[in-house]
Input
Amino acid sequence: MLYLVEQCLNGIQLGMLLFLLAAGLTLIFGIMDLVNLAHGSLYMLGAYFAATFAALTDSFLAGIGLALLATLAAGMALELIAIRPLYGRDHLDHVLGTFGLLLFFNELVRLIWGPAGLTLSLPPEMLSAVQVLPGVYYPLYRLVIILATLAVALLLYALVMRTRIGMLIRAGASNREMVGALGVNIKLLYTLVFGLGAALAGFAGMMQAPLSFVQIGMGENILILAFVVIIIGGIGSIRGAFVAAIIVGIIDTIGRAFLPDLLRNFVSYSAGSSAGPALSSMLIYMLMAAVLVVRPEGLFPATNR
Amino acid sequence: MTARLNLRNAVVAGVLAALALVPLYTALTGNYFLISLFTRIVILAIAAVSLNLIMGFGGMVSFGHAAYLGIGGYVVGILAKEGFNSGFLQWPLALAVSALFGLAVGALSLRTRGVYFIMITLAFAQMVYYIAIALDRYGGDDGMTIYTRSQFGALINLSNKTAFYYLCFALLLGTAYLVWRIVNSRFGMVIQGARSNDRRMRAVGFPTYRYRLVCFVIAGMLCGLAGVLLANHTDFISPAMMHWTRSGDLIVMAVLGGMGTVLGPVLGAVTLLVLEEALSGITEYWQIVLGPIFLLVVLFARGGIDGVLAGLRHG
Output
């Protein structure tokens, strides 16, 4: 039972990270109509920046802060140089172009930081565990991730729904020509949105970094999960991305935690150990297929498209 | 349709002739690496041609086509491991499993359009990828060596490099011919019509969903065949055969070569893989060059190599 609570929290934590990635993807798709496979690269860049800056400044928080700015800048530069010409092209062109960018970034990171990967260590005060329920201790840092991402989600909601820039973003999603005709610098707006998406992805990467390893290609598997999230949630819908991210995060984590034991009742120990995680990964795709059969536009289809 | 003598056809014919002469070159120079490389190229060209049938002509951008490479390969590998080495059993079964998978995936994913289709095909391919990882008995994550290639009795010995190369080459030509026949048939016209305007095709009375589904299954089977060949070529199967970046590579081959034509993807496959080989010879960080090339192709060479060649003729 305690284990279940812990695994649920882990699932929520993974879901929140997925949400950060998916929110950027879905914003970029919803507004610029761009399929961005290089989004995972920004996740990876965020983690590398954070590890580098944290090592330079000797401070975890300063590392995160600087890395956020750096990812934002990298995202905006990427948009200006490579993404801008892709707007208005068909989705196949996007897939191909950003696939090229993904290869480019993987290799660039290998060139700059070497093939070995980095670690980002937590400050000592984050290493403790907190009692979340009587008898249930949970790592503080994972709670920090959940709360920090929740705060980001709320900020994002406020930004999109309650500010002028958010209004322009939503207007740009429904009719870009009209917004442009009204004198809004739509190109700048796009650059900002892309930068915002990049920063969100980078933030997810740097949050995840202390829990695992900072390495090349770290963004690829989670990118595919993020795609699944936005398909389940409905492309273009931030609310859908949030709900779907939590669902996917929990299913993935619970599956990984409990399926191997469950399977071991039927097959050999080692077969259960290897089939369990794979089966739980499959569960997510089965969920996605089921959602698409029932609601081809996702759970929360974006209404303004 | 008669073949006219122009730059584009000349290049295609030249590439095919060069492919046909690879074993001769190897025999003269003893460069066995080259025939191995080109066997791989020819096999992946089959996969690219099959992808192009649905993507270029049918407008169905499948981002999970590498799954069939894996399915074809795993059927061969699993049967070989269980002691069934006969190609007469392995190959038809591999095609049948590919067809069944294509039917299931197609039936679900063809309900969606555009970017949803791209991603759902990707997701199904990921599912197969994870199944392969879960197959502990067949190597799991690490993959598994195949100790005996498919046996065809006295018909052909697949362990003979030259014979195997020519078999692959013949199958590539056969695949291209089949796709060409399909594309120019009534069936192919319906598929292409559905790409341009699905609603109109349905209004005219064609059940386009069924046509597209059949087309999807055929493409899957052809790619499954490529998977069978690939497993026999490398004597090895692993989940990496169907990693999603492999699906990306296949898309690149088709687009790079030129999607609107049957043989464009062959040009694409040859170009991409030779380029990869050449770049990796120059620098360890070859992908840093290759990635931007993809982007440049998208931006400046619409229609791929084939389109550029066709443009040169006009220009």
Notes: Chain B touches chain A at residues 55, 61, 63, 108-109, 111-112, 114-116, 118-120, 122-124, 126-127, 130-131, 133-134, 136-137, 140-141, 244-245, 248, 251-252, 255, 285-288, 290-295, 297-299 (CB under 8 Å). DSSP finds 13 helices and two strands in chain B. Residues 104 and 269 of chain B are 28 Å apart (CA to CA). Residues 38-243 of chain B form one domain.
